[in-house]
């Protein structure tokens, strides 16, 4: 194994995963320039960096507008970058979506639209459906974020209260050719799910949206309830001829990021066990499963021998019951530390590859065999902090937050457990 200490090794592996998903990779996926205009639109935490990479690689003229999260903008020359709120929408996101619809209006079959999408795009494309206010959409988002719904369920509801998501942006681009370049942050890399699929066919229905409301007992604003009941204009479905002009290309995915980390780990002499890029469910429950696998390796050198690395990706959820601070990665790690209970030789890192865990300023955090002991010495009760959903406060007290700042990409969560 490398001479690096365990936490430095984990940081190095996270850096390798992030580097594999940088927006510059879009240069390998560009369509040929059109006879007419090239208009760029897009949204996501990586959208500004993608716009800059596109400017550097594109041989012809460009114009357009993209939206990114506050603090994630980068300098561009020809593509305008607007900032808006995430994960709860704001008026800036509505204005950005309107600007995009204006930018693609009146195009011809000789024109090309390049749409740049990445995780976070759903909240940044905040334009509500007719009759629904921004405040209504904000309330829907707050309830979805707190109830523990999966991303597919969230998107089924989001798309049906939106004027731009669920394939509606693609319809607005016609008859121009549309090529979407996307960085996937979702399980399965489904174009209909990434950023709520503004340029992809939508298999979900108004009935699906109502089912999500019923399943989680959501109390929606009156205008949203009326819209879901009225079903005024269904989103375009797979096979819809109106989307014949649209093409979708993935430039980075969670699996590619895990593969990059695994390659680096093997180079450092670690035996890698990949659990895949599709881990979902409650963060604290996923932590228990990961802890069980770590205990099996520690006790039996099986299914891989030490020194070993357990890798996984995906997107867990957190059902908010407490009033603490923290995202799904800090919750996962706090639950993992409790489940491992100081097991010797086991270290872990969990972080969001966009550099922001939930709504805090950290990407994630790290744990070591002495995490619980150090917390107890400071009078910090790990179990109580977990009950209060206060992973951020727990790791901040220990000085074990992982703070990277915006990475300008987003291929979902990265989890690595190192056994010496």
From TrEMBL:
EC number: 1.1.1.81
All residue ranges annotated as the MOFRL domain in the record: 309-413
Alphabetical list of Pfam families matching this protein: DUF4147, MOFRL
Domain MOFRL-associated: 10-228
InterPro entries assigned to the protein according to its UniProt record, in alphabetical order: GK-like_C_sf, GK_N_sf, MOFRL, MOFRL_assoc_dom, MOFRL_protein
Keywords for this protein: Oxidoreductase, Pyruvate
One Gene Ontology molecular-function label: hydroxypyruvate reductase [NAD(P)H] activity
Domain of life, source organism: Bacteria
Cellular component GO terms held in the UniProt record: cytoplasm
PANTHER family xref list: GLYCERATE KINASE
Protein name: Hydroxypyruvate reductase
Gene (UniProt): ttuD
């Amino acid at each position: 194994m490398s001479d690096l200490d365990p936490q430095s090794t984990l940081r190095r592996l996270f850096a390798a995963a992030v580097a594999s998903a940088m927006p510059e990779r879009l240069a390998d996926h560009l369509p040929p320039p059109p006879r007419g205009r090239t208009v760029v639109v897009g949204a996501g935490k990586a959208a500004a960096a993608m716009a800059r990479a596109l400017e550097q690689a594109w041989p012809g003229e460009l114009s357009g507008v993209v939206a990114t999260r506050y603090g994630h903008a980068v300098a561009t020359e020809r593509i305008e970058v607007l900032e808006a709120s995430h994960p709860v929408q704001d008026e800036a996101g509505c204005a950005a979506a309107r600007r995009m619809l204006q930018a693609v209006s009146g195009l011809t079959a000789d024109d090309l639209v390049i749409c740049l999408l990445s995780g976070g795009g759903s909240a940044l494309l905040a334009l509500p459906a007719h009759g629904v206010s921004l405040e209504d959409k904000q309330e829907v988002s707050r309830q979805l974020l707190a109830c523990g719904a999966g991303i597919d369920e969230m998107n089924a509801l989001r798309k049906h209260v939106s004027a731009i998501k669920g394939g509606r942006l693609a319809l607005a681009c016609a008859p121009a050719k549309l090529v979407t370049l996307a960085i996937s942050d979702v399980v399965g890399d489904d174009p209909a799910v990434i950023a709520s699929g503004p340029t992809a066919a939508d298999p979900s229905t108004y009935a699906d949206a109502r089912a999500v409301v019923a399943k989680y007992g959501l109390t929606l604003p009156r205008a949203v309830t009326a819209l879901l009941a009225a079903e005024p204009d269904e989103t375009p479905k797979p096979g819809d001829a109106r989307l014949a002009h649209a093409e979708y290309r993935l430039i980075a995915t969670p699996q590619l990021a895990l593969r990059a980390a695994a390659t680096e780990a093997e180079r450092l002499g670690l035996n890698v066990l990949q659990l895949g890029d599709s881990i979902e469910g409650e963060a604290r429950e996923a932590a228990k499963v990961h802890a069980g696998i770590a205990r099996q390796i520690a006790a039996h050198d099986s299914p891989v021998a030490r020194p070993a690395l357990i890798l996984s990706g995906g997107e867990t959820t957190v059902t908010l019951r407490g009033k603490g601070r923290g995202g799904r990665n800090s919750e996962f790690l706090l639950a993992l530390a409790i489940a491992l209970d100081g097991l010797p030789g086991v270290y872990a890192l969990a972080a969001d590859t966009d550099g922001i865990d939930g709504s805090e300023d950290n990407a994630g955090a790290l744990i070591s065999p002495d995490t619980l002991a150090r917390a107890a010495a400071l009078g910090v009760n790990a179990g109580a902090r977990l009950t209060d959903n206060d992973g951020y406060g727990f790791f901040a007290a220990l000085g074990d937050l992982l703070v990277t700042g915006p990475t300008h990409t987003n291929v979902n969560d990265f989890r690595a457990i190192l056994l010496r």
